[in-house]
Amino acid sequence: MDKSEKLALTLSFLLLSLFFGAIVYASMARNIEVPTCITDVEPFLTDTLFQTGPDEYELQMVARMWAFQPSVVRLPVGSTVNIYLTSQDIIHGFKVDRKNVNLMAAPGAINYLKVTFDEAGEYKFACHEFCGAAHHTMAGRFVIEEAINEPETAD
Ligand code: CUA
What we know:
Blueprint lengths: L2 H26 L7 E3 L9 E6 L2 E9 L2 E3 L2 E5 L2 E9 L4 E5 L4 E5 L4 E8 L3 E6 L12 E7 L6 E3 L1
Parallel strand pairs: 3-6, 5-11
Antiparallel strand pairs: 1-9, 2-3, 3-4, 5-12, 6-9, 7-8, 7-10, 10-11
The site of dinuclear copper ion has 8 residues, from loops.
């Protein structure tokens, strides 16, 4: 093998190791969640929100032309939400404003991401994948409140 080929292979390997290390560092040390495709949750076609622990919730969200169900999610401040996202029809996107949440909603698949809301306020979310005539209307919001009695959703 030529010397320059060896050098190129070594540098490629080092670069890949660096990228892989950066992902491990981000997920472990910086607690940054990496979107995951879930295979051990039964496919669902209706939305639900329920509490799974103190300050912890599970949200099963359905995207379809041209809305998210639920479109409004009310939660108390400090909530951690495990988001399970699927689509009823075609591929949609899901991006939450001011949060590191960016998922794809694909029919027949469930994508997962965990997010914590430490500050009260409204966090809008929208579809970021062109999905037809009313793509621009496909949006909703998390409403994070200082103190509420029960979490609720609205379509
Ligand atoms: Cu759904 Cu764009």
